[in-house]
Write a structure and sequence with these properties.
The protein has eight helices and nine strands. By secondary structure, the chain is of the alpha/beta class. Strands 1, 2, 3, 8 and 9 form a five-stranded parallel beta sheet that branches. A four-stranded mixed beta sheet has the order 4-5-7-6. Helix 1 runs parallel beside helix 7 (253-263). The model has no long low-confidence stretch (mean pLDDT 95).
């Protein structure tokens, strides 16, 4: 038994997640030891020089991809969660303004889009705090959610709970939220785990073996249909992860629009921000007071 339900008795909570990483990725320009290795060009340099080609591919997400995605969200009346690396919004204030003015959620994707798990405890906490302060300044929102770049340290959940975060999404283990309890200096604290999804992420069009836009759409629709059907018995959540530089390309953006059109044909779908989903869950399910047994 789920123990909670979505507003209006919806079967499925649909979470559209737009990652904003462009301008905050690794770069010799910003003092990193090498250029960003995640690259659609197929030239992952391992030398300490700037990869201007890949940098320009990331710039495309800001210049051309973001307007397409924001326009599509606006036309369909969809509010999304923008998981943003703080420096990316500092360097793209028009996107920060669009998040604020469009009623979207700003979720922290770190201060920069780098591997913060390599930092020591003090450095990681400073990384978290700088992200919060920066996103609050650019969007007018204090982020209540967190997404790391791939990996996180064993202590990060404790840091997030101590720093007042409602939820984190560094988890891929379920189709519904749950509580996690961590030990802090002040005693046990609870934080909502709001699972994310890699399999339906548009990054699948960048990694080998890569999806075509049609393959990605087919997979996303199949995921939606399965979870919507299961939602007749117990509530489910679906995450659809997007990137400005990926789905924002003219040969791919149509697939996102087709997905939104498909979702709109089904009753019992609550399209919501992740903060709204976490709060709906937390309002109905009491957090445990102690960590679960290992």
């Amino acid at each position: 038994m789920a123990g909670f339900e979505w507003p209006g008795g919806a079967r499925l909570a649909l979470s559209i997640v737009v990652n904003v990483e462009e301008g905050a990725e690794m770069s010799v320009r910003d003092g990193d030891k090498g250029p960003e290795p995640v690259d659609e060009l197929g030239v992952a340099l391992k030398a300490p020089i700037r990869n201007f080609g890949n940098e320009s591919n990331y710039d495309y997400g800001i210049r051309a991809g973001a307007p397409r995605i924001l326009g599509l969200l606006d036309r369909h009346g969809v509010r999304a969660t923008f998981t943003a690396a703080a420096v990316a919004l500092e360097r793209a204030p028009a996107i920060a303004a669009a998040i604020r003015e469009g009623g979207h959620e700003a979720c922290s994707h770190g201060w920069r889009w780098i591997h913060q798990f390599r930092l020591d405890e003090a450095g990681e906490r400073d990384f978290v705090r700088k992200a919060v302060d920066s996103i609050r300044a650019t969007t007018g929102q204090r982020p209540v959610g967190w997404l790391s770049r791939y990996l996180h340290s064993p202590r990060l959940r404790t840091t997030l709970a101590e720093e007042g975060f409602l939820y984190h999404m560094d988890d891929y283990s379920d189709d519904v939220p749950r509580w996690d309890v961590v030990e802090t200096a002040a005693g046990p604290r609870a934080i909502v785990v709001l699972p994310y999804a890699i399999d339906s992420n548009d990054m699948k069009m960048w990694v080998a073996p890569s999806y075509t836009p049609q393959h990605w759409l087919d997979y996303a629709v199949a995921t939606f249909d399965c979870l919507h059907a299961e939602g007749a018995e117990a509530p489910r959540m679906m995450s659809l992860g997007l990137h400005l530089r990926i789905i924002g390309r003219p040969g791919r953006i149509w697939a996102f629009e087709r997905f939104l059109q498909h979702a709109a044909t089904r009753a019992g779908v609550w399209t919501a921000t992740r903060a709204e989903i976490a709060r709906a869950f937390a309002a109905q399910v009491a957090p445990p007071t102690e960590p679960a047994a290992a």
